[in-house]
Amino acid sequence: MDELPPFCARKLGRMTRYHFHVYDGRNYDWDSEGMMLPDLAAVVTEAEYRARSVIATRSRAQDWTAWIVDVRGSDDITLFHYPFTQITDVQPS
Fold first, then answer.
1. In sequence order, what DSSP letters do the residues of 21-58 get, joined into one string?
2. Judging by DSSP bridges, how do beta strands 28-29 and 16-23 pair with one another?
């Protein structure tokens, strides 16, 4: 991809592609498409949104202690894990 002219880069900011893989303790649901986001704050917000979306689709109570959103950059290196327990009542032991 071509570089943006300096005036456009400053005005638009840099966007980076991030992938939000959901891991249930045994299996991954791979996010092959990813999402372009401007900064780490937006990445954390999206990770929380993904975790909340998964929880909302489960009709019965579940043990979320092993569940995480494995957040990776476009280079497929893990940046951080967002644990589902961050937004549920159960904290890991």
1. EEE-SS-EE--SS-EEESSHHHHHHHHHHHHHHHHHH-
2. antiparallel
- pTM above threshold 0.85: no
* Contacts (Cβ under 8 Å, ≥6 apart) of 34: 17, 18, 19, 20, 74
Beta bridge partners of 21: 70
Within a 10 A sphere around the Cβ of 10, how many other Cβ atoms?
A: 10
- pLDDT score recorded for residue 2: 46
Domain chopping of the chain, boundaries? 8-86
| Secondary structure (3-state) at 65 | coil
